[in-house]
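Standup notes
- DV: blocked on the single-chain target, sequence here:
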Amino acid sequence: MTDTGNTITASHGREHRVDIVIAGGGIAGLWLLNRLSALGYSALLFEAGRLGGEQTLASQGMIHGGLKYALGGALTGASEAIAAMPERWRACLRGEGEVDLSGLPPLSHYYYLYAADNALGSLTSFFASRGLRGRIERVQERDYPQAFADGFSGRLYRLNDFVLDTAALVARLAQPVRERIFQHSVEHAECSDEGVRLDLDGRSLVCTSLIVAAGTGSERLCTALGIDQVPMQRRPLHQVVVRHDYPHPIYAHCLTGIKTPEPRLTITSHPTGRTQRNRWLWYLGGRLATSGVDRTQADQIAHARDELKVCIPWVDLDKAEFSTLRVDRAEPAQHRLLKPDNAYAKRVGQVLVCWPTKLSLAPDLGDRVLAQLPPPAYSDSVDIDLPRPPPATPPWV
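- DV (later): unblocked, structure below
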C-alpha cells in the first residue's frame, strides 16, 4: 500500500497500518464506524455478506426507553439502563448527536401501549406515577391515532419511543462512510502484541484494534481468532408477518390480559412499497414471539390469529396472509440465558468483542467501545481494491 496524504491506496507486497478494523456491517459496526471516523480514527469496516446483516434488519426498529421492561409495576435495571436512549437518538435525527442521522424520517414519532377497559389493574397507577412523567402519557380519545380511532375501547398511552425503518437506517449510516466499507472476511486474521494482521488477497493490513461486531457471526470469528473469554448466547424469537388490507399503521404494545411482565403482542408496521392495497404489513413480536419458539409455523400462525382477535378485535383479518420468521438475538452469555441490561464490549488483547444487545443501545455501545481504545495514530482514510458489500433487504421483502 502507498500513503498518499490522507489516503492509503493498495499496492502489492507492502504492509500498512490503520487504527481500527471493524468486522460486521450491522447496526453495531456501522454506528461504531461513524463515531470513530468522526473522531479522527483511521477505521475500516469489513462485512463478509450483505450490509445490514441479519439481526439488524429483522428487528422491529423500535428505539425505546425501557418501559416495556417495567410491566411488573416497578422500574428495573433493564428499564433504567435504556431510559436515556430515545433522546440520544432524537438528537442524532436532528443532526445534533454523536452520529448524524439528519434527514432520516421515523416510521412513527411515537410508540403506544394499550389495553382493553379495566385490563391494566395496578399498572394504571404505576403509569400515572411521578417517576414516569415525560416517559408515558395517557392519550385522550380525541387524540387517538387513526388505527385506534376506528373502534378501540380501552386505555391508550403514548410512550417517548419511536420506530425507524431499519433498511433506511442502515443506508443512512453507510452513506457518509461508504469509502471505508468493504466486503471481506476477517476469519484468518492473526493477533500479536503489535496488532492484528489481515491478509487482503496477498496484501497485508495491520490494525491496532480489531472490533468484532458481527452479531451471531461473532461466535465463529472469536473461535477463529482463538478467543474463548467471551462466550455468546442466542435467545430465539418466532416473529410473525401479517399482510393485510387495513390502511392504517399500528405501532403499539398490547397489554390486554398479560400474564407475565412482557407485552402480550408488540406490533410495528412497515411499508410494502405498494401505493394502494396492502400498503402496510404488521411485524408481530412480544410474548407471541418469545413463547412461539417451540411452535411449528402452522401453530404459530394459528396462535397469532387468535391473539389478534383479542388484541385488535376491531380489525377484520379474515383475508390476511400470515408468515413467520425465526430470529436469533446474539448476546454475551448470561446466567440462565437472562437478557443483558446494557450494551457489551470486552477487550481481549488487541480484539474488542461487542454486542449492542438491543437496537436502542447502539449509542451506549459506542461509549463502551471508545472507553477501551487508544487515541488515533494513523492516516485518516483507506482506499483498498476490494468489492463493496451489497445491501441486505428486510426479511419480509
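- Follow-up: The chain has two domains: 2-56+168-231+336-383, 103-163+235-330.
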